[in-house]
Amino acid sequence: MRRRFLATLATACLCLMTYGSASAAGAVPVWVALSETGGAHAEAAEALRAEVDQAQPGRIEWRVAHWSQFASSVPEPHWVVAVGTAAQRGMQDLFAGDSTPPPLLAILVPRLAFERIAEPARVRNGSLSAVFLDQPPARQLDLIRLALPAVRNVGILVSAESKAHGAGLDKAARERGMRLAMTQVGQEGLFPALQSLLAEVEVLLALPDPAVFNSQTAANILTAAYRRQVPLVGFSPAYAKAGALLALYSTPAQVGLRGGEVLRQALAGRTLPPPQWPREFAVTVNQDVAHSLGFALDQSQLGEQLRQRERP
Amino acid sequence: MPRRRLLAVLSAPTLAVLSTCPFAQEVSEKDYFGDLPVVLSVSRLAQPLDETPGAVTIIDRELIRRSGAREVAEVLRLVPGFLLTYRNGANPQASYHSGMDTYGSRTQVYVDGRSIYSSFYLGDTHVGLRGLVLEDIERIEVLRGSNSASFGANAFLGVVNIVTRNAADTHGAMVSATAGDKGIHDNVARIGWGDGKASFRVTAARRADRGFNNAYDDSHVSRLQFRADLMPTASDDVMIQIGAGEISRGEGVGTAGNAFRTSTNADAHVLLRWQRQLTPDQQFELRFVHERESPRDTFIATAGPISAVVDTSGQGQRTELGLQHSLRLDDALRVVWGGEWRYETAKSKPVYFDPETISLHQWRAFGNLEWRPHHQWLFQAGGMYEGHSYTGGTFSPRLTANFHVLPDHTLRAGVTKSQRAPTFYELRGDSRLYFTTAPTTQVAWTFLASGNVKPETLITNELGYLGRFRQINLSVDARAFVERMNNRVWFSARTVGAFAPNDAVNRPGPRIHGFEYQFDWRPFLGTRLMLAEAHTRIASGDPAEEREGPDRNTSVTWLQRLPGEMEFSAISTATTPFKWAGGGDLINTPRRLDVRLGKPFTLGATRGEASVTVQAINGGYQVYKLNQRFDRRAFATLRLDF
Question: Is A110 in Cβ contact with B13 (below 8 Å)?
């Protein structure tokens, strides 16, 4: 609660500061629409702003606020950054009637959520792009390979919502000599699907999907997997804390930083690059779980090895 | 709190609510930033092997299945130091380091926290072990050594901790049928159902065979077992077990004093366990157990014209209530403490010469402190104080130090004192024999307890090494030990009037020392090789006692996956000559080789496995007695999971 309050306070200060500097002559007006005015959204927005301001001080005239505070007005901003899914949808709706809407960069959005609401034509012509919150399939499987070299069978549990992750992960698994087993939660519920999947895999890769992985189901999934000595790889630090062996994720600041880089490059031209994954990421190991399952893992070493793999 | 959260959601902009509220099934960034309860807290996790306060061997479901064993006792021979014998074909028995008892009275056996130790007559775990259904077992954890400080009296020469499968992991139906030589005829049927919050299972099983060729030892085991696992909240686990069964087995050697007969043992139990995660660092456990058993064993002993009924039948009951609280005070300090109350009764006129029920109370208080002053060092100090309504109070302390020389290489040193509590018979036994023709005239007095017997004690010093060589997939566990037993209980005749009944008396016990090791190596994908070996020496003034254990006891296991998804396994065991107590002969156990070939398959949604096992494929061998042989036997099993 206290953290949320502080974050809200920080955002309020941020908003005041931005209005104060709004009169800078010749500055490019950029809206930063937040899904929420605190927490992760504010953190990502701050990282994005810092990245651009550091490279081009005073170039931007920022306006940071909750997305519902923005109204279509003249003059329109040159760029819009939406932080989060709700903000992306709000900003798309706001400029829906506009024949030449300002380019929109959505950050801190899951890929599937972005693709669901994005207008494909705008993505193609470079006026809509994103820095996702997800991790690329290759990175997820590389981490599994590094941490659990003996593992060949990777399992994912999906619903109709998240089964679109299957193709990319399957390809990445095959490229690494691994097999991806995907089980879709059906009418009979999550539990039978989980049990049949756990019987055939050596690691379970959790994917963000509120129909499958949520605070109600986490206890069941983690205990059932642990009983079968199947480690779980989570997508947020909360999973590592709750009992996943590993978590691979990008922090809001890391996503914001990448968003800043994308925006900075885009400022030079007038189009946005295609949607992309965050470049920076973090790996967290739950040492108690690792020790109990008989794994010796070093989270900083794993993170470093994974980064080295991605360096050109 | 829930009400406040709801209001906050409602006051937020409407569109945002639709896309982010927890009831919407569309993914959003909320899924990444939501908090989760700590599910696998330290107290819910199994203690890593390099931090246990003693040497532990774990036999998992896969190894149990591929061993081809039909009995838990047969599985235990894979554990270094465990000896397997068959008093006859209906009485398999495994014991640790010494063949000093053939009923398992010096080994504690827990099944999901319920002790199956019967103190009714001579102290017994071997009958209880026979009643377990292997298909329901998740894993067997064997503590090699003694640990009364954690497990109480009778955790003396080995502690066998059997964990059965969670009902949540056995949804669906399973049937299995086994048939083979020596009348082997086993069936298991199981059905499991439920959801994420509550799961249930019912298992019905029977196991029958005709034992050895030249012995009266047919056996028939039947069992009905129910287990429920409930997770009403993320921090509560409730387990309920109800079971009942009967074991009938051939006994006797066909002599006038030990006639052939069929003895039976019927038993039933209820187990309730509630575990609550109070905080991520604290767990509370409440356990209730009630068990009852009715052994039946009666025959007519003759000596010339004289005959008398020998009867050791009766009823026993045990009720236990236990509490345990574990907490992590900080990263360096963990505490487990608790208490237990146990009430046991026995009723048998012929065994206790008392038409009434006799009873005893035991209560226990225990504590264990785990202190990690440095990441390489772990010290554990524990102790249990036990009060016993006959023998008074005893204290069993334990101290161990684990030193992680390197992350995968651990040295362990420990000293512990353990107890075996005298059984009802040793405390209160009174067996008088009467003429069958004149039932009021006493013909013999076989046993009269003076009640002066004290608990047996065992002081163990040990040094251990646990190593893991990840590059070559090898793990090594070695243990050197000195076990000094004192107050060993013997039966010794004394004069009472015209009779000379036995009494339970204490004598100094043997000093067992030696070393044991296990290697577990997976050199290639699909290949697993295991070696378990113990070298022991028994020192005692009594040459007969010194021959109660072998100098060397070896088991070698090879598990291999073959092309076509076939699975092959071979297990070879052997010991140097020794003599089992209770009438065993001095015999050498030559190598016994068991092999198994299995083929898992799928038929639509049905998974199955067909297997053939040949025990003692290298020919039969003498077991327990010179004139008793375990002959080669083959059996086939078909198992289907729906």
Answer: no
Domains of chain A with bracketed CATH: 2-133+253-268 (3.40.50.2300), 137-249+282-310 (3.40.50.2300)
Upstream peptide bond of A75 is cis (omega within 30 degrees of 0): yes
Average model confidence (pLDDT) across chain A: 89
**ipTM, two decimals:** 0.88
pLDDT tens-digit series, residues A160-216? 888 999 999 999 999 999 999 999 998 888 888 999 899 999 999 999 999 999 888
Q: Do the Cβ atoms of B32 and A113 come within 8 Å? A: no
Q: How many other C-beta atoms are found inside a 10 Å radius of the C-beta of residue B473?
A: 16
List CB contacts (< 8 A) between A215 and chain B.
34-37
The token duo for A291 is: 């020790």
Those residues with Cβ within 8 angstroms of residue A47's Cβ, 6 or more apart along the chain or in another chain: A252, A253, A254, A255, A256, A257, A259, A260
Nearest to B35 among A210, A222, A238 (CB): A238
Does residue B396 have a pLDDT over 50?
yes
The answer to whether the Cβ–Cβ distance between B33 and A236 falls below 8 Å is yes
| Rounded-to-10 torsion of CA A226, A231, A237, A242 | 0
Nearest to A220 among B24, B138, B231 (CB): B231
H/E element holding B562? Answer: strand B552-562
How far apart, in Å, are the Cα atoms of B315 and each of B19, B243, B312, B618? 65, 17, 10, 43
Residue bearing tokens 């997800």: A134
Find out if CATH 2.40.170.20 is the number for domain B56-637: yes
Residues belonging to chain A: 312
Above 50 in pLDDT, residue B4?
no
Amino acid letter, residue B158: G
Confidence check: pLDDT of A96 > 90: no
Report residue A25's pLDDT band, with 50, 70 and 90 as the boundaries. Answer: low
Q: Which of A34, A69, A216 to mutate to test the interface with B (most CBs of B within 10 A)?
A: A216
Given a cut of 90, whether residue B140 has pLDDT beyond it is yes
Dihedral in degrees, nearest 10, Cα atoms A147, A149, A150, A155: 60
CA angle A99, A104, A106 (to 5 degrees): 145
**For B593, phi and psi rounded to 5 degrees?**
-115, 120
**DSSP 3-state of B436:** coil
Banded pLDDT at B23 (limits 50, 70, 90): very low
Pair of tokens at residue A54:
């550091």
Instruction: Read off the pLDDT band of B17 (50, 70, 90).
Output: very low
Q: Do B15 and A86 touch (CB under 8 A)?
A: yes
Distance CA B289, CA B269 (A): 7
Q: Among A112, A189, A219, whose Cβ lies nearest the Cβ of B39?
A: A219
Average pLDDT, chain B: 92
Query: Angle of helix A190-198 relative to helix A218-227, nearest 10 degrees?
Result: 30
Contact B169 A236 (CB under 8 A): no
pLDDT (tens digit per residue) in A266-299: 988 878 999 999 999 999 999 999 999 999 999 9
Collapsing DSSP to helix, strand or coil, A36 comes out as coil
